[in-house]
Design a protein that fits this description.
binds zinc ion, Maltose phosphorylase, domain 3, nine-stranded mixed beta sheet, Glycosyltransferase
Amino acid sequence: MSELFHGHGAHVMEHLRVPLFVRYATGDEKYRVAAENCFPKTARHLSAGGACISDEGVGRRPGSPYIGCEYCTMLELLHSLQSGVEKTGRASFADWIEVLAFNSAEGARQRDGRAIQYCTRDNQYEATRQGRGSRFKLSPTHDDVAVCCPVTALKFFPYFVNQLWMKTADGDGLVAVNYAPNRLETKLNGVAVRIESDTAYPFEDEVRMTVTPENPLSFGIRLRVPGWAGNMKIEAPGASVAGEEGWRVVTKEWKSGDRIAISFSPGIERKAMPNGELYWKRGPLVFALPIPSERKQLKSYAVEGFRDYEYTPKAGACWDYGVDDGSGEFRLEKISGKTDPWTGAPVRLTGKLFNRKSRVNEPVELVPMGASLLRRVAFADTKSVRLLESEMNLARKAKVTASNSFPGYRPDALVDGVTEGFPDNQDAEWACRGDGAGTKVRLLWNAPVAIGSVWLFDRPNPGDHVMAARINFSDGSNVEAGELPNDGMEPLRLNFAEKTITWMEVMITRVGPKNRNVGFSEIAVFKKQP
Ligand SMILES: [Zn+2]
């Protein structure tokens, strides 16, 4: 579990279902454990939109709003999650399916369905040939890269629809795995059964089912209880409703035209990405600030209406927002009118975000991520950035020295209040010369300071990585530090009983396998965990 995934994303996601199958076929305990482990591990690599980061490779990187997610990887993850529901009966896999389908998968498509992105991302400020070998543009073929993704993108929603319903293992009950407007036609014990689900889900919180068996028939319908359902209500006159983990089973002798009304009451959730950026989700929908865009045609194809396109932001478009005091609270707004919900989304979140240029909270409207192409989903928590720059960060008053430094790097950059580094802002980080194990950085104060929390930020580049360090303090005590978050966006936070010291020394004791010049982008010290 401690080791993150690496390798080609689509294959990694495809292989998730292998231990499920082998366990099912053999009953061997070790495959159950492997299957139990691999999905939570996958969750550590997720984009906000529910996809596994994979600009081809996963590369042991935690989920990020800035890393591309390949369409093939999304399809393989969908298929593995559907296998997860099928083989374990666990409803949480189905929650995940909806997040993936309605957000990353839908949000990688051109609205007319005639082009897709090979790779998509949560925070997508342009969709052009720039970056990851032209994988972010919109194309019906991507024949300049590889033609895999347009084919898998066509399969995604048919696969999704195909397993909206399943049968129970004994074959005489039905399972509503995922909610969507649909009509099921099947047979139970030789009797034809039709169930129509009338709903605008995920844009409304109700699903109305009409059950039509060919002859009156007793059976159970297992309805998924989404993890975010809030108070889920089920009305099914004359039926018994039994609860099971993740499901409600509605049983009766069904007659033609019997109805089930289901309603949910999801709240608006504020969630954090591994890099500390914040985003908002309601039910299965993740929300995004849409960025007004311009479309430029690249090449055209022999089949009329199919072209490659690049999307760039319109002049003056702003997405440099963060979350600070007085911003980041959103409320749901419903917009009536019958249009395609993926172009004119009937739900929005309205609230304020902190404009980092003008330094004021501004009103913004967030739309479902699946209804956006250029967008920003996750926003920096500017309050924690300010914390590093503030008086509370005692490291800023220390004199910093290092046992050695890479040419051009200064130890002072460790306490400049900025967590950035190569390739964006090399002046804001520090790196050592050589591979680094044994290198020491010392913070010296000219008067005793009381401290209880140290934050260590890794260099943001994926190669250089502190895997372990020890902090020695002037009072003779020490604290061991484990692996730092490798992208440097979030610190490793070390909290301990308050101690009064005049210096501390951070010694790097172990470095990552791809290390060249290990270092830190920032070290922060607080009296207590802020
Ligand atoms: Zn592909």
